[in-house]
Amino acid sequence: MAAATTSEPSELSSSSSSPIEAPRKYHFFQNVEYVQRPNEQGKVAIIRFDNPDKAVNTISFAMKDEAKLLWDSEIHNDTNISAVVFSSGKPMGFIAGADIGDIKSIEDKRELTGIIEDGLKFFQKMKSKGVPLVCAINGPALGGGLEWALWCDYRVCSDAAQTKLGLPEVKLGLLPGFGGTQNLHPLVGLQEALGMMLQGKEVRAKKAKKIGLVDMVVAPQSVEKVAIDSAFALANKSLKIPKKKKSWMNWALEDTSIGRNLIFKKTKEMVDKNTGGAQNYPSPYKIMDCVQHGLEHSSGDEKYKFEREQFAQLADTTQAKGLIGIFEGMTSLKKHNFGETSQPIQNVAVLGAGLMGAGIAQVTAEKGYTTLLKDKDDAGIARGEAYIQENWGKKVKRKRMTKYQHNINTSNIVPLTDDSVSWQKHFGQADLVIEAVFEDLNLKRKIVADMEAVTPSHCVFATNTSAIPICDIAEGAQRPENIIGMHYFSPVPQMPLLEIIPHEGTADHAKAAACEVGTKQGKTCIAVKDVPGFYVNRCLGPFLVEVSALIRDGASLEALDKAMKNFGMPVGPITLADEVGVDVTSKVATFLSNADLGVRMEGGDVSVMSNMIEKGWLGKKAGQGFYTYNGKKKTINADVKAYIQQYVKKDLGLKEEEIQNRIVSRFVNEAVKCLEDGIIADPVVGDIGLVFGTGFAPFTGGPFRYLDAYGADKYVGVMEGFAAEYGPQFEPCQLLKDHAASGKKFHSD
Q: How many CB atoms lie within 10 A of CB 539?
């Protein structure tokens, strides 16, 4: 992308380069290149970010210090420099954000205020040189990367699909600390800026240009050249930065005190609704405080001082530590140690075109795989294709997918039925088969035999069973080493987790194939042991039993949902059962009740759901479950409310905190038991599994970080109290007791 770098000026244009590349002076930057042109006064300095140790550039403490050194030694006092262009030496990527490891390494988070102030002074010194500062953005400019760009005068970005700009710090429980809360809204407007920061939204090039975040959008190969051209033009004043025109309505809302008060009032209402309050997610509230404070103290450095103080406070919260833990865990799980696949995966077959199968086919086709979608007849295939087309139609309408990509994705799907003359020929080229049929062991074994008869010997067979042990499905197979579990969660296009379940005889190449496809589908893959329920559903079993026990003890359906929403779950247990399907939830709970969990599945009566199935109350998909659904509105099903009264033994008048602790303790204890039994490899897998698979309060960082923050000894005390009052199902597992006795935490960081 870049010409050979040199610390000496190029003669005439950006295309000229010295025949011998000069030794590299810096670690985080390529050598500064200077461009001179005929009839132009001065030269343009090109500073390219390029950390050779990482695939992406990040802003670290060391990078900040080196940037100061570079600026002071080469740029600031050179009066011949008429403009500066910031670019990247990476083929695709500007700056992906700050180095989270640096933030974690600071023991006393108050020290961050001084470090951030030092960085801010560097940006202010850049501005004080008084020459145009231009950014050439090709690829992601996120977090601190976008903040760097916001300190510049002019931004040129590429229209590459990988180019995205945003301030996603809120997703880590933090806020933009290098002036982002102050520098974004003057460019894009108050409403747009709040939306970007509070939701961590990333915007693509076209939208960025429309809202005023960038000044030009060009082809990827032209970004740096256009940025250099723009730098010369800004320097000689032939290019002026146009002021964004604001409608009368936006002026009234954003530039008057009455309008701003209304915006902040409505924004806070939205944040309250989405987060459950500052006690769960303090960062959105701190972001609003920073923006508001800056508007009230618009001149001087007070607004930046307030921002960095709020950043340091957030960095010390358990919420930030939890969310950062999830981010780091998700990043670490993108890699696996199973080696290579036996053959490149190009053709993926999906058996069953129901909601699960169609969802799997959708995310597979979107990633470029030739996707064979097979059902028994045309009606089944038609329903599956209709589901996929509806989802893609929504993406096109919302401009999250181009019509061209829609057509490509559609062409990747090959619909097949039992009557299709060519289906066996197509399956003869399959590299991976994923079955998503009914939860019936004999049916799944039959499908294995049918597939082994028509697929090539290297083809991996994956079952999407939610609870049946994989070893049972593989029993009697010709190629058991190729059989593995790939447990998706519903709805597949939205749920980010995929459990990879090898049985004892599964070959590494099959594990590698499952992980490769799952990761490419956009899933975070966790490898778990082949036991009944695997990991996520195994933890949900005691959780569901306790919900039924609470119904027995007089807790209302509304109170159960409200309690767990207030704990931090995205939905309560009653809504969860409806969304997953009462029939599916009941089957999992019944299966686990008869499995190997023993007393841990006691204490309640899950037959409440099996009787609902007989009445057709299957959940959201049927329009009636615990709730009755009318479009987007839902109300408690009056018939169900009357029906469950027969299960109420005595109303104990339970308070919300006890409801929360009874449900969550059964959940958390089972997660620790899974670690004790080697079902999961480590606490990171355990945290990611329950956060991504069940929505376990994300701000806690997952069950293991939740225990670390709560204190294992204190939590054991709570559970032992429940065990004395309600029964042995609350007895803490041995590993949890061990941590309570030793004071050891599950996470060392």
A: 29
Give the integer Cα–Cα distance in Å for 642 and 617: 13
User: At CA 320, angle to CA 315 and CA 325, rounded to 5?
Assistant: 120
> What residues have CB less than 8 Å from 453, skipping those under 6 apart?
none
Closest-CA residue to 125 (of 183, 185, 76, 55):
76
Least confident of 163-177, 627-641, 679-693: 627-641
pTM to 2 decimals? 0.90
Cα–Cα distance between 30 and 32 in angstroms, integer? 6
- Residues with Cβ within 8 Å of residue 100, at least 6 apart in sequence: 172, 324, 327, 328
**273-297 as b/e: b if 16+ CB within 10 A:** eebbeeeebbbbbbbbbbbbbbbee
Amino acid, res. 291: V
In the structure encoding, which two tokens stand for residue 325, read together? 């833990």
- pLDDT exceeds cutoff 60 at 372: yes
Q: What is the mean pLDDT of residues 2-12?
A: 38
Q: Calculate ∠ Cα 708-711-716, nearest 5°.
A: 120
Cis before residue 344, ω within 30 degrees of 0? no
**SS percent in the chain: helix, strand, coil, step 5:** 50, 15, 35
Which tokens sit at 463? Answer: 């079952």
* Per-residue pLDDT tens over the stretch 287-326: 999 999 999 998 889 999 999 999 999 999 999 999 999 9
Distance of CA 657 to the CA centre of its chain: 29
Q: Mark 300-312 as b/e (b = at least 16 C-beta within 10 Å).
A: eeebbbbbbbbbb
CA end-to-end span of the chain: 39
Contact 430, 347 (CB under 8 A): yes
Pairing of strands 460-463, 483-488: parallel
Catalytic residues: 499
Domains observed in the chain:
29-316 (3.90.226.10), 347-527 (3.40.50.720), 535-679+711-742 (1.10.1040.50)
Mean pLDDT, rounded, of the chain: 94
Tell me how crowded residue 533 is: count the other CB atoms within 10 A of its CB: 26
Q: Which residues of 22-41 are buried (b: 16+ CB within 10 A; e: fewer)?
A: eeebbebbbbbbbbbbeeee
- Please name the helix (run of DSSP H) or strand (run of DSSP E) that holds residue 659, with its range, or none: helix 656-676
User: What sign does the dihedral 686-688-693-698 (CA atoms) show?
Assistant: positive
- Give the Cα separation of 180 and 178 in Å (integer): 6
**SS3 of residue 543 by DSSP:** helix
Q: How far is residue 741's CA from residue 733's CA, in Å, rounded to a whole number?
A: 13
pLDDT at res. 467: 81
Q: Residue 317: which of 167, 173, 170 has the closest Cα?
A: 173
For 674-677, the CB contacts below 8 A with 24+ separation are: 674/535, 674/538, 674/539, 675/704, 675/735, 675/746, 676/733, 676/734, 676/735, 677/529, 677/531
Pick the closest to residue 363 from 260, 255, 489 (CA basis).
Answer: 489
Least confident among 2-16, 68-82, 243-257: 2-16
Q: How far apart are CA 286 and CA 315, in angstroms?
A: 12
Mind listing the pLDDT tens digit for each residue in 117-148? 999 999 999 999 999 999 999 999 999 999 99
Find where tokens 């970004």 sit.
Answer: 223
Q: Output the pLDDT for position 14.
A: 40
642-658: per-residue pLDDT in tens? Answer: 999 999 999 999 999 99
**What does the alpha-carbon distance between residue 174 and residue 116 come to, in Å, rounded to a whole number?**
14
Q: How many Cα atoms within 13 Å fall on the side-chain side of residue 166?
A: 20
Strand order in the sheet with 164-166: 141-142, 164-166, 202-204
Give the CA distances from residue 564 to residues 33, 90, 607, in Å, rounded to whole numbers and listed in that order: 57, 45, 22
- Quote the CA–CA distance of 478 and 383 in Å, as a whole number: 33
